[in-house]
């Protein structure tokens, strides 16, 4: 495993990493050189951006160093308290949703939220969550929507589709409860297509029951969770340290690594898996199971891990538009380099399938939507030409 080049990573982020890597028993007096000329406003901003302030607070509580300004500790403390209340609030809603779906015999798996926090950290206050994410079979989607609407949720109907491409181009729809101020995402895939992944029935067979509450709340098996966290984090460039902290926590669990490696290979996520292991091992000191260590010796996978440092050198936010053009270009190239040959093939082929933009450019009656397939190259070229003409 090659050492990551972190030379251009802000020293404030390096300090955050050092604090997070330290054991609770040893975080008492960090060497003063770590605190030289620190931009504490940036330090606080980074802790919020990377969503690691709950874990940071748990370390600061046992740090005797007087090098951290009191207002910084107070800020982190306040954010920790707010998050704790938020997680308790989401836990109540999670239980309610689980009971509603169970009463209608609709199976669902909770992907993130309080259930994930408890599973990985043993304490819901140590991880942030802004919403609830559930996974259901796609053929139960309509019924699930009806149940949520009955409970006061409003669907954010932002998905545009042609020839039912939403089923594989997208992987979730969003609902928002205006009174409770809670966002809930219904997933029918772990990730957007066209990449292959295990189906709901397969995931359901390997499910685990969360120990967070007495209610029957089901979560992914540890092996499927590793696949999900790897695919999700890599898709976002590991631009938030929280996702690497999750990987680090999971690596320490009793995971069936033989099954995990088989699953990564089957769905062609071994490159992303190796990248995650290298980043977690070097950035958050997660360690590495012997069964997966061979991935870290691969030169191309080490290069992928180094590429992800780009996102740490900048405070990249891929969820807020507009994403800077430089970042958007880099991210597209990086995602493509993460793909296996099979994934690249299906990704390129997917461009031949009509897009909603084709429908906007040339509206056709539903009964002849199949004509968008032969027309797609021409519509794509026309849009490109028109875009350049307007610039």
What would you note in describing this structure?
This is Nucleotidyltransferase family protein. Pfam families: NTP_transf_5. Helix content is 52%, strand content 7%. With 391 residues, it is α+β, with helices and mostly antiparallel strands. α9 (222-235) packs across α12. It is globular. The mean pLDDT is 89.
How would you describe this structure in keywords?
single chain; 391 residues; alpha+beta; Beta Polymerase, domain 2; 7 strands; Nucleotidyltransferase family protein
Question: What is the class of the domain at 93-220 in the CATH system?
Answer: Alpha Beta
Stretches where pLDDT is under 50 for at least 5 consecutive residues are: none
Any idea what the shape is? globular
Give the tally of β-strands. Answer: 7
Largest sheet: 5 strands, mixed
Global Rg: 22 Å
Secondary structure: elements and pairs:
Layout lengths: L10 H11 L18 H10 L3 H8 L9 H34 L5 E2 L2 H9 L9 E5 L5 H10 L3 E3 L9 H4 L2 E6 L4 E6 L12 H6 L2 E2 L8 E2 L2 H14 L5 H11 L5 H10 L3 H14 L15 H15 L11 H14 L2 H10 L5 H6 L10 H19 L1
Parallel strand pairs: 2-5
Antiparallel strand pairs: 1-2, 3-4, 4-5, 6-7
Summarize the structure.
Pfam families: NTP_transf_5 (PF14907). This protein is an alpha+beta fold.
């Amino acid at each position: 495993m090659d050492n990551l080049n972190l030379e251009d990573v802000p020293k404030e982020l390096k300090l955050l990493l050092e604090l997070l890597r330290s054991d609770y028993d040893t975080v008492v007096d960090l060497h003063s050189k770590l605190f030289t000329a620190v931009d504490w406003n940036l330090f606080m901003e980074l802790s919020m951006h990377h969503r690691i302030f709950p874990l940071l607070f748990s370390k600061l509580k046992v740090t005797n160093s007087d090098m951290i300004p009191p207002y910084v500790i107070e800020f982190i403390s306040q954010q920790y308290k707010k998050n704790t209340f938020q997680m308790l609030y989401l836990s109540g809603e999670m239980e309610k949703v689980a009971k509603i779906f169970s009463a209608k015999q609709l199976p669902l798996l909770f992907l993130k939220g309080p259930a994930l926090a408890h599973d990985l950290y043993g304490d819901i206050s140590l991880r942030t969550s802004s919403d609830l994410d559930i996974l259901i079979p796609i053929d139960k989607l309509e019924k699930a929507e009806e149940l949520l609407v009955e409970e006061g949720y409003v669907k954010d109907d932002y998905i545009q589709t042609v020839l039912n491409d939403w089923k594989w181009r997208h992987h979730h729809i969003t609902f928002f409860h205006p009174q409770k101020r809670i966002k809930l995402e219904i997933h029918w895939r772990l990730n957007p297509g066209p990449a292959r992944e295990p189906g709901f029935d397969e995931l359901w067979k390997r499910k685990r029951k969360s120990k967070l509450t007495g209610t029957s709340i089901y979560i992914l098996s540890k092996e499927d969770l590793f696949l999900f966290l790897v695919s999700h984090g890599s898709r976002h460039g590991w631009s938030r340290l929280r996702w690497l902290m999750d990987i680090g926590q999971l690596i320490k669990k009793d995971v069936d690594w033989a099954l995990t490696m088989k699953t990564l290979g089957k769905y062609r996520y071994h490159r992303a898996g190796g990248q995650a292991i290298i980043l977690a091992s070097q950035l958050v000191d997660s360690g590495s199971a012997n069964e997966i260590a061979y991935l870290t010796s691969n030169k191309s996978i080490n290069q992928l891990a180094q590429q992800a440092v780009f996102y740490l050198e900048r405070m990249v936010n891929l969820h807020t538009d507009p994403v800077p053009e430089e970042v958007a270009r880099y991210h597209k190239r990086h995602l493509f380099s993460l793909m296996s040959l099979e994934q690249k093939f299906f990704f390129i082929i997917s461009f031949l399938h009509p897009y909603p933009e084709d429908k906007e450019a040339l509206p056709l009656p539903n009964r002849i939507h199949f004509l968008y397939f032969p027309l797609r190259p021409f519509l794509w070229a026309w849009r490109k030409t028109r875009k350049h003409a307007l610039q």
